[in-house]
Amino acid sequence: MKHFLISITLLCSAGCSMFTEKMGMQAEQTIANDARSVAAPMANAELFQSKQAVPNTASQMASVSRKNINHYVRGMMQDMAENLQYVNQKTPLAVSSFVFLDDEYDDASLLGNQLSESFMHELHHFGVAVIDFKTTDYMRVTPQGDFVFSRDYLELNEEQNFQYVLAGTLVNHQGGVLVNARIIGLMSKAVVGSAQGFIPQTVVDALGSSYRTDGIMMKKAGR
């Protein structure tokens, strides 16, 4: 009888041990399954596709708006410098206003005039001799200010010392303006350098022209 009780006790101990071990294995398996069921973090594209988040387009627009016209002119000037011929420090060059391709060639917009100013800076930066033909031979002093520039041809020299001119045309395009720039020999009419570029509409709209109404300076968007 004593041996029988000892045997039952041993069997019960072994059974409890096996049951405890089995429960432990099941718990570990459950934890492992739960760990595998946790979804991996989604990439940005997947997050946007799942519509769980909205892309921050404001920051993208801000990065574009921080780039002004000079940024795009700089890129076009670099392209032009790669194929530029005959123009150097000893060949004076002038820059004309850019005009719209489908408009009159004697009517420049604020955008066309600003492109001219920007290209003058870039040409000088590249070491090209630039002639500012709008500079008079004198300083005009008035109550409104002191001026040396003029757009009146009667106030400018009839003879100008430049052999080449940088000119260009503009074309309105969806989302912006296409720019066609080229350097032309005045005598030969040969194109000795060219470049093309695109200016986003947001950058164009950032320009503001000035006009006066009843003596008050006003601002309006450039054409």
Chart the SSEs and their pairings:
Layout: H1 2-37, H2 44-49, H3 57-65, H4 69-83, E1 93-95, E2 99-100, H5 110-125, E3 135-142, E4 145-149, E5 164-173, E6 176-185, E7 191-200, H6 201-205, E8 208-213, E9 216-221
Parallel strand pairs: 1-5, 2-5
Antiparallel strand pairs: 3-4, 5-6, 6-7, 8-9
Helix pairs in contact: 4-5
Provide structural commentary.
Residues 75-203 form the FlgO domain. Pfam families: FlgO. With 223 residues, the chain is an alpha/beta fold. It has a domain at 67-210: ABC-type transport auxiliary lipoprotein component (Rossmann fold). The chain is built from 6 helices and 9 strands, in the order ααααββαβββββαββ. Strand 8 and strand 9 form a beta hairpin. The longest helix is centred in the N-terminal third of the chain and has 36 residues, at 2-37. The protein is globular and about 45 Å long.
| CATH homologous superfamily placement of the domain at 67-210 | ABC-type transport auxiliary lipoprotein component
Structural class: alpha/beta
Biggest β-sheet strands, sense, barrel: 5 strands, mixed
Low-confidence residue ranges: 35-53
CATH architecture classification name of the domain at 67-210? 3-Layer(aba) Sandwich
Note the total helix count.
Answer: 6
How far apart the termini lie comes to 112 Å
Q: Tell me the Rg in angstroms.
A: 37 Å
Number of strands: 9
* Structural shape: globular
Share of helix, binned: 25-40%
Averaged pLDDT: 78
Determine the strand fraction and express it as a percent band. 25-35%
Tell me, what is the CATH class of the domain at 67-210? Alpha Beta
CATH topology of the domain at 67-210: Rossmann fold
Q: What is the H/E order?
A: HHHHEEHEEEEEHEE
